[in-house]
Amino acid sequence: MTTLTVLATGPLATFQDRGRHGYAHLGVPTSGGADRGSLMLANRLVGNDESAATIEMTLGGLRVRADGDVLAVVTGADTALRHNGVPVGLAAAVVLHEGDELAVDPPSWGLRNYLAVRGGFDVEPVLGSRSTDTLSGLGPPALTANLRVRVGHAAGEWPSAESAPPNTEHPRIVVLEAHQGPRSDLLTAPTALYSGTWLVSADSNRVGVRIDRAEGSSYPLLTHRDDAGELRSEGVAHGSVQVPPSGRPVLFLADHPVTGGYPVAAVLTDAAIDLAAQLVPGTEIRFRRR
Q1: Cβ-contact 211, 198 below 8 angstroms
Q2: Can you spell out the DSSP letters for the chain?
Q3: Distances in Å between the alpha carbon of 215 and those of 85, 155, 199, 223, 280?
Q4: Multiple choice CATH, 173-289, 3.90.580.10, 2.60.15.10, 2.102.10.10, 2.40.100.10
Q5: How far apart are CA 35 and CA 275, in angstroms?
Q6: CA separation for the pair 224, 186 (Å, rounded)
Q7: Per-10-residue mean pLDDT for the chain, 290 residues long?
Q8: Average pLDDT over the chain, rounded to an integer
Q9: pLDDT digits (tens, 9 = 90+) for 145-179
Q10: N or C: which end of the chain has fewer CB within 10 A?
Q11: Where are the domains of the chain?
């Protein structure tokens, strides 16, 4: 049985796959990888099914040791990887032999990276998923140092390529495309979302990204209409841009609650959800309507 030993975790490292679907009516979030595109790419590059379990790390710092031969890859945020101290490429498969170490540095751009190994990580599924849900507490606990993780048997066909060029575009202002939200009419000026720039707050996690206007900005926050009344709680989609009374929107990510009681001004596209998962505090963003 091949295993990886976790030597260091960084700020946060969790197991993530494509999530647990079909339980929203029971109040269970989908969870899964915050940047789904990077998670699925990692699995493809080692020949796994796209839904195999990976390790999602926040702000790097993960260090693992192979206890047998394993094919591994890291995708996601722009970071430096080191195989036994020697730099290796991001989004490029590398063979780890017994005793080899792989380290992931803090990203120079972006927030989250994904480590996949051929065969996936063999952790106990909960409701059909191996994802750690930070909101409900479902799934395996967050990784800790000295944890030994088994490599599973989720491998499929070998990938058509051994590497994929990472996205090297790092714009100063990140543009997020979004569709009009189902409750935008409850805001006094819903188009204000698309005016000017917003700043990512430090009050952000896998549940959602809170944004605010820069200090001194001439662009308004979003306000509820006086006659809107109290909105009943209703289902909210992954990628919803919900507006609380403060006027500072929250972009719902993978571990978001399944219901909400504030107006949804917009819903991010799939590609924009992945971008939102890589936003670090202080990043400037704009919204573009689809």
Answers
A1: yes
A2: --EEEEEEE-SEEEEE-S---S-GGGT------SSHHHHHHHHHHTTB-TTS-EEEEESS-EEEEESS-EEEEEEEEE--EEETTEEE-TTB-EEEPTT-EEEEPPPSEEEEEEEEETT-B----BTTB----TTT--SSPPP-TT-EEEB-S-B-SPPS-SB--------SEEEEEEEEPTTGGGBS-GGGGGSS-EEE-SS--SSEEEEEPPTT-SS----B-TT--PPPPEE--TTEEE--TTS--EEE-TT--SEE-S-EEEEE-HHHHHHHTTPPTT-EEEEEE-
A3: 42, 50, 10, 18, 18
A4: 2.40.100.10
A5: 7
A6: 6
A7: 95 97 86 96 93 97 97 96 96 96 97 97 95 94 97 77 66 94 91 95 96 92 87 90 95 94 95 97 96
A8: 93
A9: 999 999 998 787 766 566 666 666 788 899 999 99
A10: N
A11: 3-150, 173-289
pLDDT recorded at residue 168: 65
CA torsion sign for 120, 125, 129, 132 is negative
- Residue showing tokens 């549940």: 207
Q: By C-alpha distance, which of 205, 210, 243, 207 is closest to 29?
A: 207
pLDDT, one tens digit per residue, over 229-276 is 778 888 899 999 999 999 999 999 999 999 998 999 999 999 999 999
pLDDT at 162: 62
**131's tokens:** 């994802």
Q: Which two tokens stand for residue 204?
A: 């952000």
36 vs 160: CA distance, rounded Å: 20
